[in-house]
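Collaboration report, partner site 2.

Our partner group contributed sequences for two proteins of shared interest, and the home lab folded both. The records are reproduced in the order in which they were received, starting with the first partner submission.
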Amino acid sequence: MKLRCLMLALALIMPPLDAQEKIDAQEKIDAQEKIDAQEKTPPPKEPVKLTVEQILAETLTEEDYNESQRCLALRSVSDTYILDRQHISFRASRDKYYIVRLMRPCQGLDRDDLLVLSGRDSRLCRLDRINAIDRVSQIPSAHCVVDSVSAVTSSQYKFLRKELKRNR
């Protein structure tokens, strides 16, 4: 009985809601539910950037990269590209590329540097030095030591470059 009296009293005190007020009230409820849902959703994760080593290790089998060589004949090289601070690619022909791995990441080595190769007998071998010169200032910027030379096919090289671009 007390509840009915209370409801009757509220009905007499409060004016009835018109259609617009009902819509506004529902919009406020919807907006609050949307905010609550966003707060519960975790922020999107940053894409993981892969290194050349990770791409080589994870994307292709060991057999694909096992053609390791002692040296690279420099007279067969037509193009070079700095992949990252520890890997440089050399193009020998349309279908043949070499990945030179440096002993450690070479501080100061940038993609647009000029490379000075100090190999013996027109070859680049393990423990040979690669010096980098800044293209603009012409100041030596890095001194690197070759760790290994591995032959890769054109398709493997293109895949590697594509993955590196995607991970930048």
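Second partner submission, folded after the first:
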Amino acid sequence: MSFIHGKPLTPYSEKQFLRTPKEPKPLKAKKEKPAALEGFEPEYLKWISKQPCIITGLRTGDRWTDPHGHTCFYFVVRAHMKAGRTKGTDATALPVGDFYHKQQHVMGIVSWQREHKLDIPALIAAHRKRYALECAEKARTKEAGK
């Protein structure tokens, strides 16, 4: 005699082989996505990616010898700087070399800032001001071209 789930299996049990399918569950309504994510600034991030590193002054593609003696191409990434206990937003992003960005995550923002003698709030303010000036200049030249 065969057993399934601890119960005897009869040779042609309708209950075992001819089960009716369960009714499908009703679909959940999709949540509305916000029109714009708060603090999301893709144009600023694109601009930041083209800026030189705040530590070395190098840009993406420059040749560089890292502190371990390896010669390679430099790569600038957008590092979102935290303000207190909050997660960094796009507005607080700064251009940092990939090596130093990884170092920031290992050391922690406070130790990393102290190690490289950086004033993060002043750097953020300077980059935001320069970005605003370049955007205004671009708007002026676009208006003059019309």
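Feedback sent to the partner group on the second submission included the following. The beta strands are 3-4, 7-8, 63-65, 71-73, 76-80, 93-97. The mean pLDDT is 80.
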